[in-house]
């Protein structure tokens, strides 16, 4: 989660106990939880409103799909898959053993 591991979380908890004291810490944790819950609710409602405004063709829209890095990554992967498919088609067009390729006298 955000590149914060267990040791960093322990340091943050220790500093929080020192700064706020053990008496106020549970109340602050409760307020932080409520704030996160409200933020999540607001984000979900914004996503749902965006989906309803855009119509049924965007019903499966996720907000992370709007990230430019995701868009570029998606297009690069699609291009690589198209290249692999065209390479497979090229390999499949090989002549069978013993068959002579077509020859055009005027082209040479």
Word description of this protein:
The chain has 108 residues and is an all-alpha fold. The protein is built from two helices and no strands.
Rg result: 29 Å
Largest sheet: none
Could you say which structural class the secondary elements and strand pairing correspond to?
A: mainly alpha
What is the distance, rounded to the nearest whole angstrom, between the alpha carbons of the first and last residues?
Answer: 65 Å
Question: What characteristic shape results from the CA principal axes?
Answer: elongated
Q: What is the multimeric organization of the chains shown?
A: single chain
| Beta-strand segment tally | 0
Question: How would you spell out the order of helices and strands?
Answer: HH
Low-confidence stretches: none
Strand content: under 5%
Helix fraction?
55-70%
- The helix tally amounts to 2
Mean pLDDT: 83
Number of domains: 2
Defining key terms:
2 domains; about 0% strand; about 110 residues; elongated; single chain; mainly alpha
Question: Which helices and strands, and how do they pair?
Answer:
Elements: H1 6-54, H2 68-92
């Amino acid at each position: 989660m955000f590149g914060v591991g267990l040791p960093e979380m322990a340091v943050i908890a220790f500093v929080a106990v020192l700064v706020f004291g053990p008496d106020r810490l549970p109340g602050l944790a409760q307020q932080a939880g409520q704030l996160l819950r409200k933020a999540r609710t607001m984000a979900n409602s914004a996503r749902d409103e965006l989906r309803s405004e855009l119509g049924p063709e965007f019903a499966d829209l996720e907000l992370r799909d709007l990230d430019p890095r995701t868009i570029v990554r998606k297009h690069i992967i699609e291009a690589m898959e198209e290249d692999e498919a065209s390479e497979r088609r090229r390999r499949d067009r090989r002549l069978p053993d013993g068959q002579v390729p077509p020859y055009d006298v005027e082209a040479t």
